[in-house]
Amino acid sequence: MIEQILPAGVASAELFDDPPGLAPHPQEEALISRAVEKRRKEFITARHLGREAMGKLGVEPAPILRGERNVPLWPKGVVGSLTHCTGYRGAALAYALQVRSIGIDAEPHEPLPEGVLDSVSLPAERKWLKKAGTDIAWDKLLFCAKEATYKAWFPLTGRWLGFEDAHITFEAGAGGTEGTFHSDLLISGETHSGPPLASFDGRWIVSGDLILTTIAVQ
C-alpha cells in the first residue's frame, strides 16, 4: 500500500497486524517499559519495520530511540518516519543526501469523532469539506495529512507546528481513492540547515478501512 504513494529512493515496509513473538530491540525496551500491551505491540512492530527498511537501504539495522517530542532517531545520514494505527504499521526511510525529510501517517478510514474537526482545521478547510463528497472520509484524511505534515516539518525545524499552521488542499486521482495534497505552511519556515520551508506536497491513498498519507521533502 505505502509503496504506491512514495517516490523512488524511499525504502518502506508495512504490516497490517503484529507478528506473534516479536521482541523489541534491547536498547528500545526502556522506552516502553510502562506501556500497555497494545501500545507495546504497535511500538515493537513499527520499529521492526524501520529496521527492515534500513536493510532495504543497505544500512546496518540499529535501535530506533526517541528524540525531542518522541521523534524517532535514525542512523546518521538517514531520514525517516513511522506510523501505526488500528490495522496498520508502517515505516519509510531514505538517505538524507536524497531526501530532506519524510512524514507518513495512517488512520482508520472513518469520520473524525464529533467535535474534533473544529480543533484540527482552518475555516477555509471546513468550507471545502462541506462541498466534498461522502465517498471518502475527507475530514479524517485532512487530519492524516496534517499529521504527515508535522512529521515532515519537525525534524527540519525543531519547532512545533499546530493544526492551524498549515492549510491543506486535496486533488483526487481518476479512481477517486488516491491523489495528492498540498500543505501551505502559514508560519515562518526557517530550518536547521538548507532552504526555508514554504509548503509540502504529498500523496494519499484510501484502501479498505485505511487512509495513508506520505510526504517526501526533496
From TrEMBL:
Cellular compartments per GO CC: enterobactin synthetase complex; plasma membrane
- Is Ribosomal protein a UniProt keyword of this protein? no
InterPro entries the record matches? 4-PPantetheinyl_Trfase_dom (IPR008278), 4-PPantetheinyl_Trfase_dom_sf (IPR037143), 4PPT_N (IPR041354), Enbac_synth_compD-like (IPR003542)
4'-phosphopantetheinyl transferase N-terminal domain residues are 27-94
Q: So which cofactors does this thing need?
A: Mg(2+)
What are the coiled-coil residue ranges?
none
Residue positions binding Mg(2+): 105-107
Q: Which residues cross the membrane?
A: none
Could you list this entry's UniProt keywords, alphabetically sorted: Magnesium, Metal-binding, Transferase
Q: Does the keyword Cell membrane apply?
A: no
GO process annotations (BP): enterobactin biosynthetic process
One GO MF term: holo-[acyl-carrier-protein] synthase activity
Q: Which domain of life is it from?
A: Bacteria
* Residue numbers binding CoA: 39, 47, 83-84, 105, 147, 151, 161
Record-annotated 4'-phosphopantetheinyl transferase domain positions: 101-179
Stored PANTHER family: ENTEROBACTIN SYNTHASE COMPONENT D
Instruction: Write the protein's name.
Output: 4'-phosphopantetheinyl transferase superfamily protein
